[in-house]
Design goal:
The chain is an alpha/beta fold. It folds into two domains: 243 residues, Aldehyde Dehydrogenase, Chain A, domain 1 (3-Layer(aba) Sandwich); 145 residues, 3-Layer(aba) Sandwich (Aldehyde Dehydrogenase, Chain A, domain 2), CATH 3.40.309.10. Helix content is 41%, strand content 19%. It is built from 14 helices and 16 strands. Strands 10-9-11-8-7-12-13 form a seven-stranded parallel beta sheet, sandwiched between helices. Strands 5-4-3-6 form a four-stranded parallel beta sheet, with helices on both faces. Strand 3, helix 6 and strand 4 form a beta-alpha-beta unit. Helix 5 runs parallel beside helix 6 and helix 6 packs parallel to helix 7. It is globular, with a radius of gyration of 24 Å. The chain starts with a helix and ends in a 7-residue tail after the last strand. The model has no long low-confidence stretch (mean pLDDT 95).
């Protein structure tokens, strides 16, 4: 056992002990702990901002892009938003103990499925130090212990935020080891987390494609994640042109670097206004890579290559294809999509319902921008990520997604014949 594996074993054992203590905590105690943590974040403003300044200086020295530096930066306003997000999680309904369903058997036994925490959650993330607070808050509110491993570029910020969160939690008597942060920036520590079967119950990666791919490939514990956000918007022939343009432009251009951004636009060959739709995207600053039919609509388009249909650009680029109806649109999505978020735009309710039923995606939308693929927009509060898997949670993962269930059977002395 190497040093990192030894450290992870110790962290896992402490997390297990903390999880056991959390099991006895009331909903009110967990909410009070997070409220106290939010207060401590605000009280620690000077310490946190000083730590973040070190990360920013190191980031500039190491050549981080402006976009990465923006994700990394914390100022007073952003810190207040981080604290407010923790308070919002504290105010959310506690999923633990909720009875999912209840039945009474002919012999009088009462069968209940009751929500319980997952246990010990390992979260591996990059860049954004606010994830340290978000993830810790969601884990604690849902009764889980958490081991956090942030990116090396944010290590000082993460340490300061973690210190404040733990201090707040401890003031109400909950175990400080319920929230632990991996202190080293050595990448080998990630490998140790991925091998910690029996200590960590589930790993949640939150970051770029290379991080998620590594976690999915190497993990010996269950993983809850999505690898790509290759999201489609299908414009049906009965789509309202004004809605189609507004939705397509917003889905692509509101924020191009988020996982809910549209990457491919599919336009029905019988849709009456494809030209203005392409023009609206180009005039919004988007590069359009189209098939032959699309290129005939506007000379500013460029030819799409085969790999474009399988690319998550995370940039102001969109691939566009003309399709011969909903069957062809769904076939394209099945071949090239990533089961994240897919959208149909149409005034034909029957066609919309057909698309909703047949699209094999974690999130399917009708007449709405794919940029709504966000836990906050779903009313779930802060999210831990988006899951495209079929088991456990799908779509935005928030408090309920960090729970499982157990069966509780209540009897009056029944014995099985």
């Amino acid at each position: 056992m190497n040093e990192h594996e030894k450290n992870m074993t110790e962290m896992g054992q402490r997390a297990r002990a903390a999880f056991s203590q959390l099991s006895a905590a009331t909903s009110e105690q967990k909410a009070m702990a997070l409220t106290a943590a939010a207060s401590q974040l605000r009280e620690s403003q000077s310490e946190i901002l000083a730590a973040n300044a070190k990360d920013m200086d190191n980031g500039r020295t190491n050549g981080l892009s402006d976009a990465m530096l923006d994700r990394l930066m914390i100022d007073a306003q952003r810190l207040d938003a981080i604290a407010s997000a923790v308070e919002q999680v504290a105010a959310l309904p506690d999923p633990v103990g909720v009875i999912i369903d209840r039945t009474e058997r002919p012999n009088g036994l009462i069968m209940e499925r009751v929500r319980v925490p997952l246990g010990v959650i390992g979260i591996i993330y990059e860049s954004r130090p606010n994830v340290t607070a978000d993830a810790a808050a969601l884990a604690l509110r849902s009764g889980n212990a958490v081991i956090l491993r942030g990116g090396s570029e944010a290590i000082e910020s993460n340490r300061a935020i973690h210190k404040a969160m733990v201090a707040g939690v401890a003031t109400v008597g909950l175990p400080e080891h319920a929230i632990q942060l991996v202190q080293t920036t050595d990448r080998s520590a990630v490998g140790a987390m991925l091998k910690a079967s029996g200590l960590i119950d589930i790993i949640i990666p939150r970051g770029g494609k290379s991080l998620v791919a590594r976690v999915q490939e190497e993990a010996r514990v269950p993983v809850l994640a999505h690898l790509d956000g290759i999201n489609h918007t299908y414009i049906g022939k009965a789509a309202d042109p004004a809605k189609a343009e507004a939705i397509a432009v917003n889905a692509k251009m509101r924020r191009t670097g988020v996982c809910g951004a549209m990457e491919t636009l599919l336009i029905d060959q019988d849709y009456p206004a494809p030209g203005p739709l392409i023009r609206a995207l180009i005039e919004a600053g988007c590069e359009v890579r189209g098939d032959d039919a699309i290129m005939e609509l506007d000379p500013r388009t460029v030819s799409a290559e085969m790999e474009d249909w399988d690319t998550e650009y995370l940039a102001p680029i969109v691939s566009v294809r003309m399709v011969g109806g909903v069957d062809e649109a769904l076939a394209h999505i099945a071949e090239h999509g990533s089961h994240h978020t897919d959208v149909v735009v149409t005034e034909d309710e029957a066609l919309a319902n057909q698309f909703i039923q047949r699209a094999d995606s974690a999130i399917v939308m009708w007449n709405a921008s794919s940029q709504f693929a966000d836990g906050g927009e779903f009313g779930l509060g802060a999210e831990i990520g988006i899951s495209t898997g079929r088991l456990h949670a799908r779509g935005p993962v928030a408090l309920e997604g960090l729970t499982t269930y157990k069966w509780v059977v209540r009897g009056t002395g029944q014995v099985r014949p």
